[in-house]
Amino acid sequence: MATVSLQGVRKDFGSHTVIADLDLEICDGEFVALVGPSGCGKSTLLRMIAGLEELTSGAILIGDEDVSEKLPKDRDIAMVFQSYALYPHMSVRDNMSFALKLRNQAPGQIDEAVNRAAEILGLTEYLERRPKDLSGGQRQRVAMGRAIVRSPKVFLFDEPLSNLDAKLRITMRAEVIKLHQALKTTSVYVTHDQVEAMTMADRIVVMRAGQIEQSGRPLDLYDYPNSVFVAQFIGTPT
Ligand code: ADP
Ligand code: MG
């Protein structure tokens, strides 16, 4: 069953078409890596799925429901960005509970959700700290914690690890996969790192100039790229 269904999705900024009538079905529980050169529309596409950017035309479905007109907070989706975008004046606990308070959840439920997320992410002992007193990896975990407290059906990641050093990036890749599996979510993960795409994803979607160039299992794309473009993108791991 498709959890996320993009149907003829188009985005124009003025006369510039950034996403061109794109169709994509993402299955329940799938981990999809979205790759492609800078400026090809990856972030714009994620932002449209999250409801942060309006569609010029087309529709986005989550499950059976057309969410194209829905506000971000009414979509069963959470997004993790590359810049952590944590609230510096709030503790880790408050950063993580903020979205739940916005949705008027009961305090008991909020505590339970935050404690569970902290446990999954190894943040239990850091809950009362401020972001500035955390390492880069811990901050990125808090950013993920903020996303998972709502137990979203769909997780969107926009190059979440690209600010981290190489060693931490490897650790965090495993963390992201662990989260995806533990929460049984459906994940769309934008990366420009071929190794991440090859090792983390069930399926890689290669984008080029606002369209899908090829989509398939990592090894299939590696062995059978259908264009030089895909071969260059997937076939030469760095
Ligand atoms: P990617 O994430 O693949 O690098 P983006 O989705 O950020 O690409 O951008 C795709 C294209 O859309 C780029 O040409 C960018 O300049 C343009 N773009 C993105 N956001 C806006 C905006 N708010 N207004 C005008 N153009 C935009
Ligand atoms: Mg981007």
Report on this model:
The strands form two sheets. Strands 6-7-8-3-9-10 form a six-stranded mixed beta sheet, sandwiched between helices. 37% of the residues are buried. It has eight helices and ten strands. It has helices at 42-50, 92-102, 107-121, 136-148, 166-182, 194-200, 218-223, 228-234; strands at 2-13, 16-27, 31-35, 57-62, 65-66, 77-80, 154-158, 186-190, 203-208, 211-216. Magnesium ion (MG) binds at residues 42-43.
Helix content: 25-40%
Gross morphology is: globular
How many individual β-strands? 10
Q: What is the oligomeric state here? A: single chain
What is the strand arrangement across the widest sheet?
Answer: 6-7-8-3-9-10
Please specify the SSE layout and strand pairing:
Blueprint: E1 2-13, E2 16-27, E3 31-35, H1 42-50, E4 57-62, E5 65-66, E6 77-80, H2 92-102, H3 107-121, H4 136-148, E7 154-158, H5 166-182, E8 186-190, H6 194-200, E9 203-208, E10 211-216, H7 218-223, H8 228-234
Parallel strand pairs: 3-8, 3-9, 6-7, 7-8
Antiparallel strand pairs: 1-2, 1-4, 4-5, 9-10
Helix pairs in contact: 2-3, 2-4, 3-4
Bound molecules: adenosine-5'-diphosphate and magnesium ion.
Adenosine-5'-diphosphate binds next to helix 1.
Protein name: Sn-glycerol-3-phosphate ABC transporter ATP-binding protein UgpC
Keywords: ATP-binding, Nucleotide-binding, Transport
GO molecular function: ATP binding
